[in-house]
Amino acid sequence: MYHVKEAFYSLQGEGAQAGRASVFCRFSGCNLWSGREQDRTSAACRFCDTDFVGTDGQHGGRFVDADALAVHLTALWPQQDAAATPYVVFTGGEPLLQLDEALIEAMHSRGFEVAVETNGTLPAPAGIDWLCVSPKADTALKLTRGDELKLVYPQAEADPERFTELDFRHFFLQPMDTTPLVDGANYLDATVAYCLAHPQWRLSLQTHKITGID
């Protein structure tokens, strides 16, 4: 049984795949925060702005097996464009609490490339085509190699220097938000400054929020 908060078709807004048409499947649940506001201050990840509780979102629900969910997600991809490779992004919450080889194989059998956006604290099933790891606080990473490491910045317990020797193709810093800091600067300015001083890192912006794309 898979529990899905929401599923939708849009453009990827962040990182190396920004601008790519994608089917998003947001699984319910996370291992770093319950999703309840009363638990936020004691959570390992305290800045999450995503609702991943329940199955009541757009195209959300409970799916009895991999084929049922694969059929559901495939229906969200436009069928008229045969030239494009279908692309699905499993996210959360924490998708690796639920994503398994059966679902990956079911999506592959329907022609999809499979991407995952994870906090990296859980092992990943085989077959993922694009692995994006986004570390949170001082949590221990089980996934130390992949396609993309995307670090929300700044995090007091997750200095970028902790991750520079890991085996990723791309290293992105993404500003936590654009609200002013105590000294009058903002997270965007701080992130830009870090990338300029440490060119291993590239700036990632949440372009879907900037442009208003759902």
Describe this structure in words.
By secondary structure, this protein is of the alpha/beta class. It has a single domain, classed as Aldolase class I (TIM Barrel, Alpha-Beta Barrel). The protein has helices spanning 66-74, 101-108, 187-197, 207-211; strands at 2-11, 21-27, 61-63, 87-91, 113-118, 130-133, 145-153, 167-175, 202-203. Strand 4 (87-91), helix 2 (101-108) and strand 5 form a beta-alpha-beta unit.
- The CATH topology annotation reads as TIM Barrel
Order of helices and strands: EEEHEHEEEEHEH
Structural class by helix and strand composition: alpha/beta
Low-confidence stretches: none
Cα radius of gyration in angstroms = 17 Å
Reading side by side through the largest sheet, how are the strands ordered? 3-1-2-4-5-6-7-8-9
Shape: globular
- What's the helix count? 4
CATH-defined architecture: Alpha-Beta Barrel
Largest sheet: 9 strands, mixed
Percent of residues in β-strands: 25-35%
Number of strands: 9
